[in-house]
Design brief:
Chain lengths: 353, 353
């Protein structure tokens, strides 16, 4: 029996309840604990295994060290018709981005398009969570973040000055699943490196190189090298620009100011992220738009295959199937993660998962 | 003497004047001819050699065939505080996007952020031209387009359903050049393939593959294969989503509806593009922001190098140097292009370049 098949399946609600208990135990107000837990469990339901409950022990560590504000005053600092800037007041990033996405959605209903950024935020989980909030209101959602630790240098350099700065774009369909792109601007997200390390697995060549430019495939040696951007200098440029839009424009950290939230548990990370909501009806009849997205699905899926491929996938398709399976069968909790969550439960004296 | 060193240098104003004469000769109103010529010559000044005067013979061919509306009524079809949708009325794409970028800039001055899309547009040259218009007003500019011919299949397929859908993002600095990213979501833009073909040069592996998945390096055989997206399925996903935002959302062509504007000179292309302008002052003190961008320049440029690299470049840095050189010394006109422009001048009975 491999480690993978040994993963037990835990219902999403149960997972969410466990996360909520953990946060409540370290002093988070009940409503906030529920919001964060629900978003983290959703991340696991969506198969973002590096960004859901996997992060809980580290979040708890940071909260206990005083690195997160549990009584934040998340407030609108600046606002115009097409934008707002939030001060996250060093709250859990999930709370700040949940607020940002909700505000962007409400503002877009008036202005057609609304862009809501934040500083003083923190790690908020997978990008797609917040692109999916406008989606639930029939809108297009877009999310960009500055990552919470620098894992790559500028193209041609060796100093870790950039993060994996991800983008998510979510687009509704009529009768097909929504299209949801969620990608780091690196070949692999750092969360994937961490889960490989926890499981004792190796990485394929192309994910990371060492400081001499040689392939690095042992995830436990990740500190000795850096992630590679997609398309070489293009992914570097895209990640850099996303970092400027999500970081500097919002008055948030970027470059050398980025706090490695794993290494430093106390300093405020001043994380920057933004959400854009687009009210489809401002541009085009929403039903006609959604039918066009169905046609995109059908056209792509039925088009001929390149030798060696079994199917053409659409962005979010794999996630959609994983989500259906995880919501029906439960989220797979890998044994190594299960042990660390059991330790956490004992430590916090809460009912285990 | 190589072909490259044989390129003669032509002053930007002279180039612009020639383009203007050509458009006037085929019936374009004087002011429109001046606007399009100025944008095309700017593309050449910026070193976008596949997107400037190189395209003139083909544009003229399309105009003569009746494929472009020379008396367009470019108008705002829908508008809210944070957005507008233009009907380009099948005008030259440069005119539609010039209008879109100007409108986005004016609207962003009020709303903070403004997103202006268009349908009924046409090929408009390099993406960075329109991201640079908000930039001239101290704003951040962002531009995305659906390309004007499909050059790649969905990831794992062989049917050409997608274009190179590019993105440009332009960000002002204080005392350094602006950061300007301009990239196709493919490893190489199709314009680069065309210029290689015209010059009889080969392409590096990784730009294109044939229908069996084998590397394709002869640009004259480009019809037998397709471009590769950056980062494999990631670039495919990004290009697909950009195409939906710039195409379907605007009521413009996408996928099988895309008209190959080189093969079909008559059908309206119904090209879609959008420009986003961001008024920096809505978020943060603009001077403080620009100083931060200077710091980005200095931090990246002075950081240590990976073995085998001579320098770290910032997005737009190479373009900045090329532009300075081209504005001082003139734009290099490659002999093959020079001959085709001489033929065009003779054909149109206008003063040659």
């Amino acid at each position: 029996m491999t480690e993978e098949t040994a993963a037990r399946r835990v219902r999403v609600e149960r997972l969410s309840g466990f996360i909520e208990r953990a946060f409540t135990a370290v002093g988070m107000p009940a409503e906030d604990a529920r919001t964060v837990a629900s978003l983290m469990a959703e991340a696991d339901a969506l198969g973002s295994e590096g960004h859901g409950v996997f992060r809980l022990p580290q979040y708890v560590k940071r909260i206990r060290a005083g690195g997160v504000n549990l009584r934040p005053d998340i407030r609108i600092e600046r606002e115009r018709a097409g934008m707002a800037l939030l001060d996250g007041d060093n709250a859990m990033g999930h709370l700040v981005m949940h607020r940002a996405a909700g505000l962007a959605t409400r503002k877009a209903a008036e202005a057609g398009v609304a862009w809501v950024g934040a500083h003083g935020s923190n790690h908020a989980g997978p990008a797609s969570l917040y692109a999916r909030i406008p989606l639930r209101h029939g809108m297009i959602g877009l999310y960009v973040a500055v990552g919470n630790a620098n894992h790559l240098p500028p193209w041609g350099g060796t100093e870790l000055l950039l993060s994996t700065n991800p983008i998510a774009i979510a687009v509704p369909a009529a009768s097909r699943p929504p299209l949801v792109l969620d990608m780091a601007t690196t070949v692999a997200a750092y969360g994937k490196v961490k889960t490989r390390a926890q499981r004792g697995e190796t990485m394929p060549e192309g994910w990371m190189i060492d400081r001499q430019g040689r392939p690095l495939t042992d995830p436990r040696r990740a500190d000795e090298g850096f992630l590679l951007p997609i398309g070489g200098y293009k992914g570097y440029g895209l990640g850099l620009m996303f970092g400027i839009l999500a970081g500097i424009l919002n008055g948030a950290a970027f470059g050398r100011d980025t706090i490695d939230f794993n290494a430093d548990l106390v300093s405020a990370t001043n994380t920057g992220q933004f959400v854009v909501a687009i009210d489809i009806g401002a541009f085009i009849d929403p039903d006609a738009f959604k039918r066009q997205i169905d046609i995109v699905w059908d056209t792509m899926k039925s088009s001929p295959l390149l030798p060696g491929f079994e199917e053409i996938r659409l962005p979010g398709e794999r996630t959609h199937h994983i989500e259906q399976d995880n919501r029906a069968q439960g989220v797979p909790i890998h044994p190594a993660l299960d042990r660390s969550l059991a330790d956490l439960a004992a430590d916090l004296a809460i009912e285990p998962l």
